[in-house]
Amino acid sequence: MFEGVRDYKTFVGHALPGSFFLIAGLWWAGKYSLWYTTLRNKSLGSTSTRLASRSTQRRLEVIEGSRIVTFCVPGMLAEQFVADGPRLHLYDYSEHHWDRLHNWQHSTMYLFFGLAGAMSLIVHTTDAAPLALDRLMLAIAFFIEGFLFLYHLHGRAMLDVHVHQLLLFCVFGEAMVSFLEVFHRGNILLELLRASLTILQGSWFWQIGFVLYSPSGAEWDQMDHNNMMFITMCYCWHLVFSLLVVMNMSVASTLIKFDPMSNAWIQEAGLLKRLLRRLTLILIHQW
Amino acid sequence: MFEGVRDYKTFVGHALPGSFFLIAGLWWAGKYSLWYTTLRNKSLGSTSTRLASRSTQRRLEVIEGSRIVTFCVPGMLAEQFVADGPRLHLYDYSEHHWDRLHNWQHSTMYLFFGLAGAMSLIVHTTDAAPLALDRLMLAIAFFIEGFLFLYHLHGRAMLDVHVHQLLLFCVFGEAMVSFLEVFHRGNILLELLRASLTILQGSWFWQIGFVLYSPSGAEWDQMDHNNMMFITMCYCWHLVFSLLVVMNMSVASTLIKFDPMSNAWIQEAGLLKRLLRRLTLILIHQW
Amino acid sequence: MFEGVRDYKTFVGHALPGSFFLIAGLWWAGKYSLWYTTLRNKSLGSTSTRLASRSTQRRLEVIEGSRIVTFCVPGMLAEQFVADGPRLHLYDYSEHHWDRLHNWQHSTMYLFFGLAGAMSLIVHTTDAAPLALDRLMLAIAFFIEGFLFLYHLHGRAMLDVHVHQLLLFCVFGEAMVSFLEVFHRGNILLELLRASLTILQGSWFWQIGFVLYSPSGAEWDQMDHNNMMFITMCYCWHLVFSLLVVMNMSVASTLIKFDPMSNAWIQEAGLLKRLLRRLTLILIHQW
Amino acid sequence: MFEGVRDYKTFVGHALPGSFFLIAGLWWAGKYSLWYTTLRNKSLGSTSTRLASRSTQRRLEVIEGSRIVTFCVPGMLAEQFVADGPRLHLYDYSEHHWDRLHNWQHSTMYLFFGLAGAMSLIVHTTDAAPLALDRLMLAIAFFIEGFLFLYHLHGRAMLDVHVHQLLLFCVFGEAMVSFLEVFHRGNILLELLRASLTILQGSWFWQIGFVLYSPSGAEWDQMDHNNMMFITMCYCWHLVFSLLVVMNMSVASTLIKFDPMSNAWIQEAGLLKRLLRRLTLILIHQW
């Protein structure tokens, strides 16, 4: 079924980050939708509710930040110490060339996202830094991801270059939206747009895997202009898909009733579990 | 008179969207001009008038949204099921190529505009979503239109590429203006600029039809640089035309007197009819 | 001294718009500097002074708008009806090519600037339109100027293309600054930046005339890369020059004392003359 | 060890501006971090403290501006009058070519930074000009630096062009951030981002020196695509380094206690010395 071990590995190498971005996008879509609903319901509630939800928010942010860090650090290490990783060797002196630059580049990307997560942790656990710092670091992390991809494509086939260029649209889009959030923090539209673009990035990584290193062994004609045109249109369909997912989650979240009691209960009995269960329910409810 | 059936079809294929964008542009120019006038007169009116005009606004938005949807859904279906449409077949397995990608691309564009219309409906009938969502979706729809055109032009003749590139200026311009409206909602200048660019897009579609698939059978030299220079200038004249139309409608709308009585009457007796009649009067008044 | 009549004409064709932009830039630098000073002094003055200065402002704007119109309409006519103008003929049917497109392009540019002037007149004489409309039209006029230049350069020599590309930096810069003024009206920095860029454009037109159609008959090697590098640097010097001029005028304007008496007098006895004299004095005072 | 005198000179020619930008970036990181801390502590202090710190700020700005001027004027002169400088000769009439354009270009860059420093001096010593003028001039100075580099690279080897293009990212980034500060003055994130990008620029100048004119005499293969990919990644590491430096300084500055007494003392007994010592302490404290 697979052409070879290498192709299979590369397919997984695209599916893995794709899955992570999909999860991140869904998480953000759910988080910001629920907050937006809470904010609208809160006008009816008391001050104590408001304080409670603010501390809930902070705890969610801390959880998110620590998850990002605990995912990026092993990711960096894995890229270095897997079977054919560079093991922190940067230059192969025997053959006079750079050693496995792709692994190093992926490590660098993980590093920036890890830094963004760490920054988010610092911002939300201490009062030392201004709040908007987490968005600025996120914008830088996305920018660097796109920046490294940009100089990654030299000398590849036309279709290969094209599918990666399409990826750049959403990566730089996310960088721009995150940067705008530095000045317009709490704008629900920007937050949901970021979530949509992240889901788009995730599903597009899967698409790249299927187009370039298809597990079924099918090969696309890299020089056919019709393939280019189809892929461009396909990208738009991924965007429609991600927009609809985010919208459905957003609408579903408004159907959930928040009452102060449950809100207090959340804080006591495993906040994350309940929220994840809710998100799952919303997702199941949709399909 | 026509070189062939195919050329005629392509001419109609440019004239049709052109007409729709022209109508949309004129509608927006009229709507926002009237609102701006009402807003200025309202400072003299009572609270009840203000409430009345707000519900009028909402009804107009709902009508606009439903019109867009009822136009885009048949458009999508027509692209699929016309005589030589793909009928939802995406890949021709017998000849191993993608099936009528142009129809599919047009369907995709309709899909995004339909989505923008549906979003506008949801925003203005329920309170679930933030208001600015309609502009964000509009910005995305225009961006996708330009995005698909951008990768549409490979391997065509110089003049053909050029007239479509000029189209991109106003399409991306509309996307940018709509995105700015997310942050500066109700800015009359941005709204009228959007209307102007939409009229420009509509009239330019007609121009493309006449240049590339002229019904009179005249053919332009696709490689003559003088033709390029003339077409560029011609584009500017279309812009002047659209700016003047929007300005005239805007000025004419200030001559119409709004009194609370008629405003209440509007709500009772066929809102749309009267408004369309007014817009027609304004247009007749101009020429 | 001149290589031929045609070169001389082209030199004048660059010097003339250059002079007009120089005058416009100096006028703006003076106008906004004086207003800024008045505004700062006004906090000490009475309400009547404030009203007086506001009506003075409006009258200055009206004078500016009408000057622009009375300059652009003859400009358009001159481009059409000079000795070798197209006289409103667009297409030469005998030889089957477009007729004197350059004159038509210049007419188009005049048209947009004339429209911007007319809009400024309408905005400042009636209350029908929002104030920021004058800046929006100015932004469009500058954008169209750059847009037409952009497709003007096909097939010329390297240095010729380069000096015109440098011009585009300040033209699009002015368009961007004017567009920003729609949202940040009255920001003295944007106003002075616009004035500086306009002076830069004016002096650069003169420079282009001297480089490409030097009256002394000297010819530059169009293919020498050193010339390109020198011209780029030269452009920066023009910018320094224009920045220093605007700054000096700005500083000098703060030395002038405004008292309510003279302010009232201005309105009665030839506003423009006195102001122009003042500007001249400032300029003389500098050099 | 060195290949020749020329290479050594060019290495120093990159190390020197690199060091200056490093110092400027560290200075800004320290200055804005301390101000941010002071601002947060000030809410506990009295009015007199607030006034004191405002005058301290102004004095710091004046010192900064005068330092920039006293560094740029000799820089300009040095570029002209060093052993092989052009000594103000612009054109070599004997050989008919421009004379040492590189020195002239560097002089021009110094000129713009000097102008920015002088403007900062004027803004902070007099009340004549609006505050944001210093940022606008800084934006223009960075823009011109990037602009001159952009047309500097014609006909060089691939790697040479690439390392300089990477430099442009941070130079234009600084220009953009400074321009945004015109509208968002006092935004600590923009200020620290500017500091980071300046440190990045400084360390990248050193990197360019080591890559292109290595003092160890090692030569990089200018045509190897792997080198390109490594250099791109290396640029990201420089960014991480500069972000971490700024963050550490920022966090360290919050550990310093400011009390009104010491604040008053600062004004009396050599402001700059103490601050520099503090910055040094912070730096030592970090490593």
Question: Strand-residue fraction of chain A?
Answer: under 5%
Oligomer: homotetramer
Ends apart, CA distance between termini of chain A: 31 Å
Give the overall form of chain A. Answer: globular
Which sequence of SSEs, written as H and E, runs from N to C of chain A?
Answer: HHEEHHHHHHH
Count of DSSP strands of chain A: 2
Average pLDDT confidence of chain A is 81
Subcellular location (chains A, B, C, D): Membrane
Family (chains A, B, C, D): Belongs to the TMEM45 family.
Transmembrane segments (chains A, B, C, D): 12-30, 107-124, 136-154, 166-183, 195-216, 228-247
Keywords (chains A, B, C, D): Membrane, Transmembrane, Transmembrane helix
Keywords:
homotetramer; 287 residues; mainly alpha; two-stranded antiparallel sheet; 9 helices; 2 strands; globular; DUF716 (chains A, B, C, D); membrane (chains A, B, C, D); transmembrane (chains A, B, C, D); Transmembrane protein 45a (chains A, B, C, D)
